[in-house]
Design brief:
Length: 230
């Protein structure tokens, strides 16, 4: 018996251990290495346009929408047969948007930490569908810059708002398009006034809540320039 044959025989025997022993499998020969990642980390990589819902409030609007989607997807299933087997589940004849449950939030929070091989994993698809919301302009600002969105509450960030409006006014006043970027009403009269318009804060809030997940997004760049402070 040659040395090479002895080595191969020994290696094969090691890969098929006796009952109760460890099975090394044939992946050693195939050279296949399986790398698993948590669903949360895989979501950031494969679906950057989505973010896991982080609120703990059962009345949060994003959770209510997600819970409705879950209930719609399982409404034909009887008690104990819904995909996550939630307590209190029962077959539904009609689905309306209602508060979610603490159990549903908890299930999302635990499932997102499960490690899977890839985005084709059934649980990954479920978490993507039932536990996420759109990525927003405000998310990009929070995650990628040191700036903060100005607080739109009354009497908050007064100097910051004044400075932000001045930047907006100056940059848009010289525009050759004949109108400002956000198309404020009465722009012709507003563009020469340093006083903050009543609807500027509202405009910033609405623009910050627009779905966006790329840093070259125009809404992201505008809100970063016109609605933030250092």
């Amino acid at each position: 018996m040659t040395t090479a044959f002895k080595a191969a025989s020994t290696f094969a025997a090691a890969g098929t251990a006796t009952a109760g022993g460890i099975y090394f499998g044939t992946d050693i020969f195939k050279g296949k290495v399986v790398t698993k990642k948590t669903i949360a980390s895989l979501l950031r990589e494969k679906h950057p346009q989505k973010r896991l819902i982080s609120s703990s409030s059962v009345s949060d609007l994003d959770w209510k929408k997600a819970y409705k989607t879950y209930r719609e997807g399982n409404k034909e299933r009887n008690k104990g047969q819904d995909i996550w087997k939630l307590d209190g589940w029962d077959r539904l004849s009609e689905v309306q948007e209602v508060d979610t449950t603490t159990e549903f939030i908890s299930r999302c929070n635990s499932n997102k930490l499960v490690e899977v091989e890839g985005e084709q994993d059934p649980l990954y698809k479920q978490v993507l569908r039932y536990c996420t919301r759109d990525t927003l302009v405000k998310d990009l600002i929070f995650e990628n810059t040191s700036k903060q969105l100005l607080n739109s509450a009354s009497d908050q960030d007064t100097s910051g708002w004044t400075a932000a409006w001045e930047v907006y006014r100056t940059q848009n006043k010289a525009s050759d398009k004949g109108k400002d970027a956000w198309e404020f009403s009465d722009w012709d009269s507003k563009k020469d006034k340093t006083e903050l318009p009543a609807d500027y804060k509202t405009k910033c809030d609405s623009k910050a809540s627009i779905p966006a997940f790329k840093l070259d997004n125009e809404d992201y760049k505008n809100v970063l320039n016109w609605c933030t402070k250092n």
